[in-house]
Structures are given as C-alpha cells and as structure tokens.
Design brief:
The complex is a heterodimer.
Chain A: H1 2-11, H2 22-32, E1 37-39, H3 48-57, E2 66-70, H4 75-83, E3 88-91, H5 97-109
Parallel strand pairs in A: 1-2, 2-3
Helix pairs in contact in A: 1-5, 2-3
Chain B: H1 7-20, H2 27-33, H3 40-55, E1 60-64, E2 69-72, H4 74-80, H5 84-87, H6 105-111, H7 114-120, E3 125-127, E4 135-141, E5 149-159, E6 165-174, H8 176-226, E7 230-235, E8 240-244, H9 246-252, H10 256-259, H11 264-267, E9 270-271, H12 284-289, E10 295-302, E11 308-320, E12 323-333, H13 335-370, H14 379-410, E13 418-420, H15 422-439, E14 443-448, E15 455-457, H16 459-475, E16 482-491, E17 497-506, H17 527-532, H18 540-551, E18 556-562, E19 566-574
Parallel strand pairs in B: 14-16
Antiparallel strand pairs in B: 1-2, 1-6, 3-4, 4-5, 5-6, 7-8, 7-12, 9-10, 10-11, 11-12, 13-15, 16-17, 17-19, 18-19
Helix pairs in contact in B: 13-14, 14-18, 15-16, 16-18
Classes of the chains: A mainly alpha, B alpha+beta.
Chain lengths: ~110, ~600
Amino acid sequence: MARAIKERLALEGFEVAVAADGLAGLAAADEFSPDLILLDLLMPKMDGMAMLKKLRQGGRGKKTPVIILSNLNNDQARRDSLAAGANDFMTKINASLEDIAAVTKKQLKN
Amino acid sequence: MVGGGDGGGVFCFWRACYDGKKIKNMNFIDSIFGKKRNGSGRRVSRDLLKGILHGSPIPQFVIDKNHFIVHWNAALAEYTGFPEKEMIGTRCQWQAFYDFERPCLADLLADQKLSLIARYYRGKYAKSKLVPEGYEATDFFPRMGGRGTWLYFTAAPIRGSDGRIIGAVETLEDVTARKNAEEASKKRAAKLQKSKAALLSAVKNLDAQKIKLGEEKAKAEAILMSIGDGLVITSGKEGIIIMANRVFEELIGWKENEIIGHSLFDVMPARDADGNPVPPQKRFVSRVLNGDRPETATFYYGRKDGSFFPGAVTVSKIIFGGKNIGAVSVLRDVTREVQIDRAKTEFISLASHQLRDAPTAIGWCAEMLLNGTQGPLTAGQKDYVEEIYRRNKNATGLINDLLNVSRIDLGTFIIEPEEVLPESVCDGEIKQFMPQIEAKKLRLEKDYDKDLPRINADRGLLGVVFQNLISNAIYYTPEGGQIKIGLKFEKSAAGKKEKVVFSVVDNGCGIPDNQKDKIFQRMFRADNAKIARSGGSGLGLYVVKEIIDQAGPGWEIGFESKENQGSLFWIKIPLSGMIPRAGQAQLTRGAV
C-alpha cells in the first residue's frame, strides 16, 4: 500500500521515503527531515502513536506536519492522534489516493 | 320501700304526720328518763341525763316503744334542720333522713324486727361490737347536706328495769368526708387498677407487637441480606451507612460492623471511567436525595484493599412518613460485562481495521493501474480493472454498513453537530452519484427552496442519510427513469418555518403493499428489490431509520410508495438540529 501512495505522490512531484515500522520511521524522519509525514497507527516494532509522541517530544521532527492515515476509524484513535499533535486524520478505506494527494498538498500549503 | 308515692305525696304525708300525729301525752318520756314526781334525786338524774344527751355534740334521738320521738338533741336539730320542738312527740324521725316514711334503724330495734334490718340496710349494716344488742349502719342520704351526706349511725334498744324494751336510741355521725375520701381513694384505686390493667395489656400488646415486628424485621433483614446484589442502606446526604448485606461486604471487603455509622463516600470511594474521583455531591446517594430520579450507572468503586472495580449502581430514595430519610443502593460488580464490552469494542475496532486493509490496498492498486502510471492498459484490461475498482468500492461500503450497524446496536456512534447547509450536503452526495445517474440516463430534477438555513447537524450522518435514500432511488429506478430531489420548508399552521423536508421521489419499482411494514427492518429486502438489484445488503434504510431516531427531537422519516409506480421517501429536519452525543466511532458511508 505504501508503494501505491509513494507512486501517487511522486506524480505530484513529491520525493517520498517509505519506512516499514515505527522505529525505522523515526530514524528516517531524523535522517531526511521531511516536510510532511504520512503515518499509519498499527505498525510493527513501534506503533504510530508512540512514534508521533516521540516526534513531538523534540528534535527535528517536532514541528513536521503529520497526517495520520489509518483504518482504525474510531473516535478514540482520532482524538488521541490529534491530542498527540497530529495535524489531520484520514481513514484509509474512505480515502482514495486522489484524496490523500489533495490533503497532503493542502497541509504543505499551510 | 316504705311509704312511697311521688314527691307531692311524701310532702303531704309529712304534713299529716307533723300536724296530725303529734302526741300530747309525754308519759312515755318518764318511762324512759324517770318520772318527775319520783323525788328530786330522780329528777336530777333524769334532767341531768336529758341535759347530757341534749348537750352532746353527737346527733342522736330517742324513741319510745311506739316510735314516738322522746328526745331529739340540739346537735341533731342543727344537723338535720328539724327543731326539737317540732319533732318531739311525733313519729316523724324518718323525715329527717328519707323522702318517704320508713322505719329508721331505731324503729326496727324498738320493735325487734331484726329480720327487716337486712331488708332496709342490705349490705350496709352490722351488729355493733361495742353496744349490746346494738346495730350500726352506714348509708348515703342524698337529700341531706346539699350534695348528700354519708351517715354512720348506731341504734340500740332501751330496756326497762323489767328487761322489756321501752324504746330505742340512735346516734349519728357524719362520715361524708371520710366516706368521700374512701370513695375517692377507692375510685383512685379502681382507676389505678384500671390503668394498671390497661398498662399491663398495652405492655402485653407491645410485647406481642415487638415479637411480631422482630419477626418481620428479621424476615426483611433476611431477604435483604440474601439479595444477590450488594445492598447498602444509607441515611442522609452524608451517606451514613446503616445497613449492608453480605454481598456488599464481599464486594468491598469491609465487614458490616466496620462500616456502620461511617459515610459511604469514605468507605467506598468512586471514580469515573477516566479515573477521576467522583465528589460526594455527584454521588447518586446525594443526587437522589436532592430530587434527581433514581438512576443506574457504572462507576469504579474502591475496596478495602485499595483496588477498584467497575460497579453498576442503582439508587432509590427511602420515603417514610412523607420524608426522604435515606437511600438504598444496589450495587453489582460488572467487571465481566465491562471486560466483554471492551473485548467487543476492541474486536470491532480490530476487525474493522483488518477487514478494511485488503479493500484499501485493492482500491489503491486499481486506482494506480487506472491512472496509467504503470503504463497504458488495453481496453479489455481497463474494463477488468474498472470492475475490480467498482466491486471493491461496493465491498468497502458493505463493510462500512456492517460496522455502522454494530455501532448502532451498541449505541456507540458519535453525533457531532456542526452548522451545515443541507443543500451543500445533498449536492455533495448527488455529485458522488452522477456517474451512475448518467450511466442509467436518469432524469434528475432538484427542487430546493431559497434561503434554506444552516442546520446544526452531524455532516457525516446527514450525508449517510441522503446517500442511502438517493442511492436507493438510483438503484431501483429503471434506465431512463426520473428522480426528483427536494429540500423544502415545512411551515406551521401560522406560517412559521419549522422544518426542512428532504425528499426523494422516483418512478422505480416501488414497494409491495404487504412488505411496507418491514422496510426499515435490518437486512430486509423487498422481493421486487432483490430482482431489481441483486447486490444490496438490506442495511441502508435500517441505518437511516436508526440515525433519524437517535438524532434528536423532531426528526422524522416516512415514505409513500406504489409497486411498479415509484416511491417517495422524506426526512423532516427540525431547525433545532441534532443533539450531540459522545460515542466511540463515527458512522461511515455505506455501500454505494
């Protein structure tokens, strides 16, 4: 799935790096200093919520916009994510690649 | 009775007696007191005796054997009001005492009619212990001394020197004061006796009632103690514990005798679901006594060992004599229910995640293939990928429908109202369906009132409602058919705008009359609908109905339909909007 997003966003001219789990994601965030992070919640090794909290604790990723992209469509997940510093929350199944590209562009404009 | 007659008769008789029978000859006096002519010594003796009797402070009279009064002393005259000179020589001694003529005790003794004593003085007389042949009696004389007088009188025959009876003497003593005192004392004693008896009876009754009450109390206590849920009875808003049953003891780990007299709020602290302490004034025991209705809710309650458990508590106030005297709380450990509920929620959450992952990936991959980034597709390949995309979207909708239904059943869907324009939500939904509308060559007509207001409603839920009704019209209307979507004001009789009515009219297959009552049931699909479209889930109208029912006051849904002619579905949206509700998840768009 990450591949599909990567290729779709590449069409928009974005350079995309993909990490397979939370720990790798943290490392990649630190290494690449991305302009925006699309983050899933259920991931191996370190879940998205823990990674988001780590990011927001300090360092280079402290102010990077984060869009949570998850199929956990419950209010708790949404509230917790936004409370932990996420900028937006999208339910994967209800979002087309088109929608993801649009939200990404909107966040980067902000 | 002697004499008799009415009052007048007695009066006349008295006069006759007084006037007609007074004797002039006083010889009999001499026979009693001695003749004057029997020498000076004898006369002295007679006069002395008469003087003594006359001057005696004890009222007395003497009669001769023929009952004529020969002596009536001053004390008696004063006492009875009958002067000596009027009485001496008469046989009217009875008049001083009685209303009618009858013998006095002296008369009976003068005649020695001892058997009559019992008749005239039954129960009131006795033989004198001091005077030989004398008798004494005590009787009440109602006519004497204003309010009546008790007299103690003693009479004895007077015998001549030859031993024959020549008269009789009677002395009297006013014993009213003593008698009254005795009577009062008797009455007091009787009263006391009565009181004592009443008291004893009351004590006996009390004892019986006490035993009965004790039995009933024991029975009630046994019932309360045996209740399968924890039960605690408290008094006042401070929640002072006055009773707790065994299950309650087991639930919180305290023994009843350790907590009686203590506040429930100290003994069993409460926390809300987030772990915040519940202050005493918000505890049900206080709220119920403040006039709130009995309630049931789940809080986390503290045990003696400091641990907490989820407990469902129901509190009712105890009303006695029109006053709130306390509260009865029934507590149930719902640890298992909470665990099950949590497991269910987690399962749904996880299942929804897992169920969604595959369709998400399929959708995105199909999207990528269709957008040509992997190279152009042949016409045949494109058809297949489009079919994959479309079917996947249906599957996604079905998953969402199923999750929505489970959330509706669990009552866990969120209502988050915000200001929305109904026509913009409606147009948004129509836009989603334009490909299908165009593919079926349906004629779409929109009829919106101008200046429709913003309504405080959950945009997502309103979208789900509109989407389901619009999609049904599209699915069940044949090619070339017509769909009309309306948003119009509904006005009150006074012309005031009260609601916005959303309506969808189609000229599709309609609903058979015999199935109209089932149309909002879960998983129900009308027979002709199954033929018109095979892929429906039968969940759409159920979800719509549930949303409308839970949206708040004034929301309504209805329909009119004729088989093979078409249907009209309408939603009445009150201008007051939806009532917000916390929950676990938002409902999402279903199958499209």
